[in-house]
Design goal:
With 154 residues, the protein is an alpha/beta fold. The protein contains five helices and seven strands. The chain has one domain: Rossmann fold. Bound molecules: adenosine-5'-triphosphate and magnesium ion.
């Protein structure tokens, strides 16, 4: 996987490979980007977020939050790791200031974006993760909006 050729579909065979993919992806990201990680429990969203954090040279890495929906890290730019699993709806998300993050100057990496489907930014990177078996994950990237054309046209 090279910087110049990010595949838009990939199958990984280990958590480490998923992290490597995230690390390579990070080289394509810019401050203000919103990355939505879609997928079931255990599909690898946090694992991929860890790789992105590593690629953005964050000293801290994404964790599965046991408390707190939002974790901020500092790397090449500010990184916001949002895990919305425990939210019921987007009104609740707005109450805790989610939109300040989504339209902020850092890179937002969001798990469980379906919780705020009605307020997701039009400009975003959607990454779908599917568990194929214990060690195998299908990862698919889809860009929405104009912000990505130069960055993801291989
Ligand atoms: N190819 C793979 N890619 C990613 N994770 C993998 C892979 N193979 C095995 N795993 C394992 O699957 C688990 C993925 O957990 P992770 O916390 O990343 O999932 P998640 O999607 O964030 O779940 P949740 O919805 O609970 O937050 C980890 O235990 C990881 O080691
Ligand atoms: Mg997670």
């Amino acid at each position: 996987m090279s910087f110049n050729n990010i595949p838009l579909h990939i199958t990984t065979n280990s958590a480490e490979q998923t992290q490597e993919f995230g690390q390579n992806l990070a080289a394509r990201l810019l401050p203000g980007d919103v990355i939505c990680l879609w997928g079931d429990l255990g599909s690898g969203k946090t694992t991929l977020a860890q790789g992105i954090c590593r690629g953005l040279q964050s000293k801290e890495t994404a964790v599965s939050p046991t408390f707190g929906l939002i974790h901020e890290y500092q790397g090449l730019c500010d990184i916001y790791h949002l895990d919305l699993y425990r939210l019921d709806n987007s009104a609740q998300a707005e109450e805790i200031g989610i939109t300040d993050y989504l339209y902020g100057r850092g890179i937002s990496i969001m798990e469980w974006p379906e919780r705020i489907r009605d307020i997701l930014p039009d400009d975003r990177l959607d990454i779908h993760l599917t568990r194929l078996d214990q060690q195998t994950r299908k990862i698919e990237i889809k860009t929405s909006g104009n912000n990505w054309n130069d960055r993801f046209n291989n």
